[in-house]
């Protein structure tokens, strides 16, 4: 069995009607991503409240769990979990609670809660029943044990959880494991000892009974008992009511007592088998493994569901990659049609919340659900504008750097290093620092940027995820190309626009450096190229002395070019751009962008480039892209183009560069 659906109404960030949550889960892995306070933890907590946990955590609905909006606080909430049975025989365990449906039996568990007036003795009344409408019988204790989920909280103390002690998590895991049930029976009796020898018991309780007997028969313990009785208690007892003392274990240990004395630790790492205090990350790995031991032992008589909040806690990126690979392997085993061997663990369903782009980049995009502003946006096929080739492309190229777009409020997708280096600096100088607006800039290395943009759109091209995506694209045509051709190319690049959440901002003439020079920064671009050429020539940063010389020479050269261009701004921009456009590529575009960004910062420090002046001298499409992604533009973006060229004349999408 597996959790196939979850419906939430009026619980925390989730409201009712269109604001309720209705989320389907796959049999294997589901990764919940998105910004803080979007609702990820609420999804996990809702499941825990209905099912309970193997740790027997005390979970209950409190007043703060009821949804609050402009109309006030809700007085009732409802959480419904649906379970499907790939093997109908599994449903027999829940016969009284299942519902016959078209595709086989289903188990519905519905939690309802009422918020009573404060003067009532109980301010919150909660009930859990089965059935699609929540009118069926309540699950009993045995059923509760079968449906309990394993949960790893976000702020977990792995070292404490794995240490010995009363009620330790390790003792709970082992006590619940079927392998330990046979360890409850003692297989030792004192009369089994013959001539001082006895067969070592096979059960843990039997071993403890032997240890208890051996302690009582220990020479020092017997001496203590005899001296206590013979020398003291006999003298202090009434003759008709003697007092006798014994020395030994106070109470015969049962299995749980034994398990509570067990520790779990890393015994070998880096080839060394020494017990030392390990770091938080290593202990976190050990803790996750121990929890999976329990959930994997549920067999066919339970719910193999694992909930993990932030599995990346305390883990460096390499470990996060391993965790991502492992979780993906679990999902592949869960969805495999191949029959399971007897010694294999049962299919494992895992629901994960994460803030880690590294981990998100390791799983299939179809396994990701974006949770934002109390709404769920699955990225599986049929829910987005991505086609089959897009999914294959993104699975290959959606690395940790690009995956951060799944966590942002706004995204600027660019093609090259120059835009990636320059746009954050320009945005900050305009008073719109990207970090403060929750905007991620993602370099995709080619015109494949449109594939990334389609993540955020529905199949019909309408907006879906509440994220603004600004695609910044070069025109990639000579500046003097016919306007008709430019119009066709521009329209092709805007094919994915929806004028609400995704918009493409296209270079008006040819490419970034040329457009910046043409718009009003030709002198600065020329100096940046001159410095970049020198840095490339010497293979090292330009010294302060050399920089001063180059700056002076560039100024003289640019003044001469201005006179020769006869006020033709396009001719001047073309001459400035020529060293990075010709085949010899005398200067790196990335190095040029970095130099130009430094010149802008220096000008601002001298008080020469206030935001208003910078805005007026920059290409309009760059400013518009930044304002769109930061949600600061006042006017709506222009509508999508209607003059889309025919499919037989597309602009080819290059593959990302390595």
SSE inventory with pairings:
Blueprint: E1 2-9, E2 21-24, E3 29-33, H1 40-51, E4 68-69, E5 72-73, E6 76-84, E7 98-101, E8 104-115, E9 124-130, H2 141-147, E10 150-152, H3 158-161, H4 169-176, H5 204-216, H6 219-233, H7 255-259, H8 280-295, E11 305-309, H9 317-335, E12 349-353, H10 357-360, E13 368-372, E14 375-378, H11 388-397, H12 400-403, E15 410-414, H13 417-429, E16 439-443, H14 449-453, E17 468-473, H15 483-493, E18 502-506, H16 512-538, H17 544-565, H18 569-581, H19 589-605, H20 611-617, H21 620-629
Parallel strand pairs: 3-12, 3-13, 10-11, 11-12, 15-16, 15-17, 17-18
Antiparallel strand pairs: 1-2, 1-6, 4-5, 6-8, 7-8, 8-9, 13-14
Helix pairs in contact: 4-8, 13-19, 16-17, 16-18, 16-19, 17-18
Task: Give keywords.
658 residues, alpha/beta, Rossmann fold, 4 domains, six-stranded mixed sheet, elongated
Structure overview:
- This protein is of the alpha/beta class.
- 37% of the residues lie in helices and 15% in strands.
- It has helices at 40-51, 141-147, 158-161, 169-176, 204-216, 219-233, 255-259, 280-295, 317-335, 357-360, 388-397, 400-403, 417-429, 449-453, 483-493, 512-538, 544-565, 569-581, 589-605, 611-617, 620-629; strands at 2-9, 21-24, 29-33, 68-69, 72-73, 76-84, 98-101, 104-115, 124-130, 150-152, 305-309, 349-353, 368-372, 375-378, 410-414, 439-443, 468-473, 502-506.
- The longest helix has 27 residues, at 512-538.
Q: Unreliable runs, pLDDT <50, ≥5 residues? A: 645-658
Tally the helices: what do you get? 21
> What is the residue-averaged pLDDT?
84
State the CATH class of the largest domain.
Alpha Beta
Please give the CATH architecture of the largest domain: 3-Layer(aba) Sandwich
Portion of residues within helices? 25-40%
Distance between the termini: 43 Å
Structural class: alpha/beta
């Amino acid at each position: 069995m597996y959790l196939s659906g979850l419906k939430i109404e009026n619980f925390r960030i989730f409201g009712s009607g269109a604001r309720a949550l209705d989320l389907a889960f796959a049999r294997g892995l589901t990764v919940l991503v998105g910004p803080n306070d979007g609702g990820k933890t609420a999804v996990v907590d809702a499941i825990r409240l209905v099912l309970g946990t193997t740790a027997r955590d005390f979970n209950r609905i409190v007043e703060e769990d009821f949804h609050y909006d402009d109309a006030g606080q809700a007085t009732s909430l409802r959480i419904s979990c649906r379970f499907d049975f790939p093997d109908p025989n599994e449903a027999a365990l829940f016969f009284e609670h299942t519902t016959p449906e078209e595709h086989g039996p289903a188990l519905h568990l519905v939690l309802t809660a009422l918020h009573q007036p404060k003067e009532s003795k109980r301010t919150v009344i909660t009930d859990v029943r089965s059935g699609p409408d929540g009118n069926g019988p309540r699950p009993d204790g045995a059923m509760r044990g079968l449906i309990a989920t394993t949960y790893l909280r976000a702020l977990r103390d792995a070292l404490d959880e794995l240490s010995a002690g009363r009620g330790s998590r390790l003792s709970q895991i082992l006590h619940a494991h079927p392998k330990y049930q046979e360890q409850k029976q003692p297989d030792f009796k004192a009369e089994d000892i013959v001539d001082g020898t006895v067969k070592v018991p096979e059960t843990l309780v039997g071993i403890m009974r032997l240890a208890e007997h051996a302690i009582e028969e220990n020479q020092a313990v017997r001496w203590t008992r005899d001296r206590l009785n013979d020398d003291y208690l006999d003298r202090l007892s009434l003759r008709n009511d003697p007092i006798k003392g014994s020395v030994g274990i106070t109470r015969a240990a049962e299995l749980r007592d034994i398990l509570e004395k067990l520790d779990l630790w890393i015994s070998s790492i880096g080839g060394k088998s020494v017990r030392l205090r390990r770091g938080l990350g290593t202990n976190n790995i050990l803790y996750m493994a121990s929890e999976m031991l329990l959930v994997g032992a549920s067999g066919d008589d339970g719910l193999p569901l694992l909930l993990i909040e932030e599995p990346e806690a305390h883990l460096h990126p390499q470990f996060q990659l391993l965790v991502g690979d492992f979780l993906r392997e679990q999902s592949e085993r869960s969805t495999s049609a191949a029959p399971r061997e007897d010694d294999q663990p049962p299919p494992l369903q895992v629901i994960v919340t994460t803030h880690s782009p590294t981990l998100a980049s390791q799983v299939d995009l179809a396994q990701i659900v974006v949770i934002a502003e109390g709404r769920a946006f699955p990225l599986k096929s049929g829910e987005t504008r991505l086609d089959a080739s897009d999914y294959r492309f993104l699975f290959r190229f959606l690395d940790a750097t690009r995956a951060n777009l799944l966590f942002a409020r706004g995204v600027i997708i660019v093609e090259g290093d120059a835009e990636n280096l320059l746009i954050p600096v320009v945005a900050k100088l305009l008073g719109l620092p990207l970090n403060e607006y929750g905007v991620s800039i993602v370099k995709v290395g080619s015109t494949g940027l449109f594939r990334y943009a389609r993540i955020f759109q529905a199949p019909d091209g309408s907006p879906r995820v509440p994220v603004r995506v600004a695609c910044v694209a070069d025109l990639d045509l000579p500046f003097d190309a016919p306007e008709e051709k430019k119009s066709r190319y521009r329209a092709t690049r805007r094919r994915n626009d929806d004028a609400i959440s995704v918009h493409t901002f296209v270079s008006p003439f040819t490419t970034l450096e040329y457009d910046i020079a043409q718009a009003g920064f030709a002198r600065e671009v020329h100096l940046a190229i001159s410095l970049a050429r020198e840095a490339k020539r010497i293979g090292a940063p330009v010294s302060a002395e050399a920089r001063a010389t180059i700056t002076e020479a560039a100024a003289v050269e640019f003044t001469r070019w201005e006179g020769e261009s006869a006020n033709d701004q396009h001719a001047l921009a073309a001459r400035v751009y020529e060293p990075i456009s010709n085949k010899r590529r005398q200067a790196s575009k990335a190095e040029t962008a970095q130099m130009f960004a430094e010149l802008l910062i220096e000008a601002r420090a001298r008080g020469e480039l206030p935001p208003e002046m910078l805005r007026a001298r920059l290409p309009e499409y760059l400013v518009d892209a930044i304002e769109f992604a930061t949600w600061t533009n006042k006017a709506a973006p222009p509508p999508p183009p209607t003059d889309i060229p025919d499919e037989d004349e597309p602009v080819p999408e290059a593959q990302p560069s390595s």
